[in-house]
Structure formats: structure tokens, C-alpha cells
Description:
The protein has 452 residues and is α+β, with helices and mostly antiparallel strands. The protein contains seven helices and 27 strands. The chain has a single domain (109-451), classed as 4-Layer Sandwich (Purple Acid Phosphatase, chain A, domain 2), CATH 3.60.21.10. The protein is globular, with a radius of gyration of 21 Å. The protein starts with a helix and ends with a strand.
Amino acid sequence: MFRAAIRLVAFMSCTLLSWTAVAKPVEVFTVIGPEGEGVLRWITSEASCPSVKWDNHKPVDMQLRTGAIEIPARVTLQSYQKPSVFDQITCEAKWPRGIKLAHVKGKKLIAPKYTYQRILIIADTGCRMKASENAFQSCNDVEKWPFAKVVKSAAEKKPDLVIHIGDIHYRESPCPTANLGCKNSPWGYGADAWRADFFEPAKPLLDSAPWVFVRGNHESCARAGQGWYRFIEPRAWDSMRSCDNAELDSLADYSNPYVVPVDENHQFIIFDSSAAIGKKLDKATLMFQNYSEEFQAVNNFSGKKNFFLSHHPFFAISPVKNGQPLTSGGNKALLSVLGEHENSLTQIDYFMHGHIHAFESLSFDGNHPSSFVLGNSGSQMEGELPKVVSESFELSPNLMVKNFSSHPNYGFSILEFSKNPSSESHLTAYDVDGKEILLCELTQRKSICQLR
């Protein structure tokens, strides 16, 4: 194993020298991790990490997170495979508390606020290129893949924090030769597809606010998990949890939930559901056991109003076509685990998800947490949602929908917390141009939305 490690380091060093001949854009941003700790990330084609100057202190070197590397193709969910080339290095440094500015090679970055009031929420942003479904979105058309427009309008709202609730990377298959809509698009799971699908269009928001990332199924190990861990996972690098070795996916496809504090009264619970399948789990399976442990950890996150963020919905309505009856969009694997940990619901005030490419808000009879689906930020829309739902609609046994709102537009949402704990919080849904569509009042685990 030691010899293999030496060969890998040598390979990385040689390939880095060849890749740096072509300059790539520098990506710089701040990612927020457990307990709100900020980590400065710097992705560069240079051979070594730069130094960072915190306020007026003496510069210190950033640490290397991962080097440039070419990872052999692995069996994936798609029919096309190719090696994953990461042609830049990723550097990082933890933001010290009390620091206001970071200076890196002429760039100035503002420190995380650690207390946030205006929080931008997006999900499902990438351009879908998936041969197994013959689904090829027009990535070259800003109207048909509007993520860049969403970013521009959202940045103008000057959020304190940006949250992405998963499914960042979608360019999994090569664009068909005759398809002009996605012609010449990079594809696969390497850095070029990550740049096209996320870093380039997201730049105005990456520059303006720190980010919280929630892992989606597109960032699972069988898909874009290698980029997830290299670029945006906030916690320390762990080669055993990198998605580079398929034999270790049972480790790397799961991670412990953590809390991001918002203020004295609110916090986000970040839950990794990337591996969740679409059917009920047997208690003896590894997936059931892993998610069960994660729910047990959630039970310890009390003391504040909790907003539970996972990519896969627990409580949602599926889009329908051709007048089909309404059905639950909740993930059956996660719901089967939650059924054994219903006490977790007492710790949660609101659910927030992506995965379904639409906006919807649901609240229920009794003291059950409300649920939002916010997956309408760029990836191809799927089916339609009803405009109204009967109050007699039973989403699952003994769970009646009390209030429901949806809209079919691409866009983003902003969650605003009141500084007064007795006052309502608000979530506003916007279209791609930043026009208000819905205003939702959040109080006592209920969400009531009105058209704007």
C-alpha cells in the first residue's frame, strides 16, 4: 500500500506539470461546515497553494486539500464512462473567528458573518445530459438552462448566505453530435464538467456570500462524488472517503449530519441523503443502519428552531402528467427509517429539500413540520404540480395536507429570519428575473403562502 501511495504521488506530480501549461480559471469561495465554521477554498492550476493574509496579519500558507489527478473510469449509472480528470489543485484555510477580510493574490474576500438573516436557497441547478433517459437540456441556451440568470438575479438580492440543497452536477453523458443545444459541452465527472455546470455560472454568488452545500444523489460516489469531496465538502479531506475507490463507497456515500447555526433562535441541520434509493428498506441493510444512526444524531440537535435540509424529500407531492392522481414524492427509503425514529420529528420545525424540480410548500394538520421543495433553479423541469390540493388529501397514513402552494417557474427562494423570536419568518419565491411569485409566512411549524 505504501508503494502504491508513492506511485500515486509521483503520478500526481508529473501530470500536474503537464496540465498547468493551460491556464484554468481560479475558483475562490467560502464553504460553511459544522457549527458554522468557515473554510476558504482556492482551486488553481498553479503548482502550489498561495498564502492568505487575514486582515493585517502576517501571511500564512494555505494548505493543500487535493492535488491534480486522473482517476480511472469506474462503473457508473450511465452507459458512457471515461476517466475523471482533476487538472487543478484545491487549497484551503479555516477562517479564524474575529477576522473580517482575507487577502489572497490580489483578491479580497469578506469573512462569514456567523449570524445570518437573508438566506438564498437553490437546488438542482445543473444542465441535464443523461443518455439513459435520452434527456439533453440545451446547456448553451440561457433560457432553457437558466442557472446563470438565476445566479445573476439572486446575487442582486445581496444574501448573507447561500444554500445549495444538492444536485449540482448533471453533465453525465456526451451531447449527441446533431444536438446544437448542448454541442461541445464537457461531460463526465471531472473538473471540466464541474466548471461548466457550476463554477462558471455560479461565480457572481460565489464571490458575494459564503455557501452551505447539501449533498444530492448526483453527488453520490457512483456519479460526481469525487468532485464533491475535492471541491465543496466542508470537512477535512479523508482518502478513505473520497469516492476514488468503489470498494469504499459504503463509507464515502454516508456522512454524519451537522448543524449550521443561523442566529440565537434558528439553525440548519445538514443531512446527507445522497445514497438513498427509492424503495422501502429492510432493517438489516447497511443503508437502513447508516441512516438510522444519522437520525439518532439528529435527536441531539435541539434547543433551537430546526430547519432540516436533505436533498431527497420526506414529505412532498410528485409532479403528475395527463391527469394522473396525486402521489407522495417522499423518499421511501428515508421514510422507512424515519418510521423507526418518529421522535426525530419533535426536533424538526421545517423540512427543506430539492430533488423534485419544482417549488412547493406543504403544511399539515396537527403539529407536524411543514415541508418545502426548492429544486427549481436550473435543471430540466419534470411534469406539473397541482395549483391546489384538497384538505382531505392524505399524503401518507394519518397525514393530511392543510395548506399547499406551488409554482412551475424556474427561480430561487430567500428565507428571512426575524430578529424577534416571537415574530414570523418569511420565505419568498422568485422567478429567474428576481420577480416575487409567492410570499410564505412560517410560524408554529406552518407555512402559508400568498401570490405576490
